[in-house]
Amino acid sequence: VGGEAIHILLWPLGGLAFVKPPMTPTAELITVVGGPLVNAVLWALFWAVDQYAMPHIAGNFAPGSQAFRYLALIVDWMIWANRLQFLFNVLVPVYPMDSGRILHCILWYILGYQRSLLIAGMTGTVGGLGFVVLGLGLRQITIPIVGITLGREPSLILVGMGVFFAMQSFAVYQQAQAIQGWRKR
To answer: What pTM was estimated for this model as a whole?
Structure first.
């Protein structure tokens, strides 16, 4: 998109790309969508391996082979992890997650940079507080596509994630307010 890729960090749970795309909604959107797109491709790839390659690979192992069971377990885990990461990154509109940034980019086309940042920041703040509520066990939700229930019992991880998301999103909201104040002067 004509920007700059400063640093890319890959690790077992995914990766982070430190980039500077041009300051346009299209460039930002293309850059942000790249992350979840990687998980979608890996999800589909490992699903195809499971469905089509694993039956053929099984013939190369002794019946009930421990090595084949480990291989099947790794493939299943990669399907689950990439599906979960893709859906989490796309369906949870909080900063710094990709979906919060995607929401900002889409609204940017309609409302302009500052107003879209205000809305995305506030949406993410409310979403982060929702994670805190789930983490405290005050409410329960089930996400059928991944078969996970959140809020069934208290979870410090969810509370921690919620606090982090709310703080990051509120910082974005405050940044948008500062932009508005700067333009008034």
So the answer is: 0.80
